[in-house]
Amino acid sequence: MSVYHQSQELIAQAETRLAGGHVEEARALFREAGMAQRGMVATLPQGRVRTKSVFTLSAATLLFRADELDSAAALAYEALAQGWLEPYTRKRLEELVARIWNERRCREAGLEGTGDAISVVLFGGSILHRLAPLDSVDTIVRTAVNYIRRMGAWCNRKPFARLVRGIGDGVEEGYRPLLSEPVAGSYRIDIHLAQLQPTLPLDGAPVSPSQIVDGCVTFAGMVRQADAQGIAGFVEDERYRGALVRLVKAMIPDGSRIGEIEIRRHSAQKEDAVRFTPELRDGVKRLVTAVAPSPPGEGPRSQEGVFVGVLRAVDLDSADLRIVCDDGRPVPLQIPDELYDVVGPLLNRRVQVAARTPKRRRDKWIAEDVEVATGGPNEGSPPGP
After folding, report:
1. Which of 57, 54, 46, 56 lies closest to 84, judged by CA?
2. What average pLDDT does the segment 319-326 reach?
3. What whole-number distance in Å separates Cα of residue 122 and Cα of residue 346?
4. What is the pLDDT of residues 143-170, one digit of tens each?
5. Closest CA to 366 of 319, 326, 325, 328
């Protein structure tokens, strides 16, 4: 068997071990494959520039995946010093060196490396080359982080509770989100989910960042397909299901400034992305009703109303908010826990809120849905007293 075919067989075995959760066995196989390819490159004639470039990059990447950071960096630096390296390979090796540097810094900071990542890509509307409207990007990124936080809590089977931490305070106990810079070619942001190194013995190991990222992409795909049965089977808890579906709905563009958004695992091919366009919004709204009944209120409804205006926080920790309608009227709002994840990124934005009052509390409005408002200012349509 040739060195090439031997290394491919080792890589296939490593991927199988990794999928089964046998990380150390997978790393040993990646290391063996990387060293085999490194040795093969040394035997190739100088004239085979393309082949040497391809397998140099492959060998360094395999050593990185084997957690042999020093060996991967040494091979990358050695190759970058050569004048024969192809431009594409040079660029990829420079990126690998940056990843190795990040990996080391993360470990020094108490994280178990840079973890896995989910990519959020924006297209169309007001999206330019590496430029996008700040408020739109801020809202989507914060919503995506809340989506990852909520999925992390579900994957670890935590009891449902309001997540009150800010973006920098952890996705769930044991994790931390790290944000990349925009990537050229549309507007792509990678949200890395790094796992904290445990300082105390744990009762049961937390799920890996890869499992949480997989859960996010799988669930988003089910929402995209309006697979109510699959969603109910994937997330059995009704409150978690409600929060997660509403978070996906909140990321779907309305077409005014963003024409399309895709969600995918960072390492996945573009063809594997889950894409959402404005025409899917109404279907996902119906899906919310089907798989996640309205958050609990206080008895029968007395009134229903729709308010349009700027969302302000009175006391966010207690979910006590206010919407200042376009005509200047302040309306107090109570936010159920299932909507809390959606509301945070929308503070100080112009929104549309569908709400109701309990039968005996006409001064108290309980939000049932909150989304970014479209079109020009108007007064909303709350009923009279």
Report:
1. 46
2. 86
3. 18
4. 999 999 899 889 888 888 876 544 334 4
5. 319
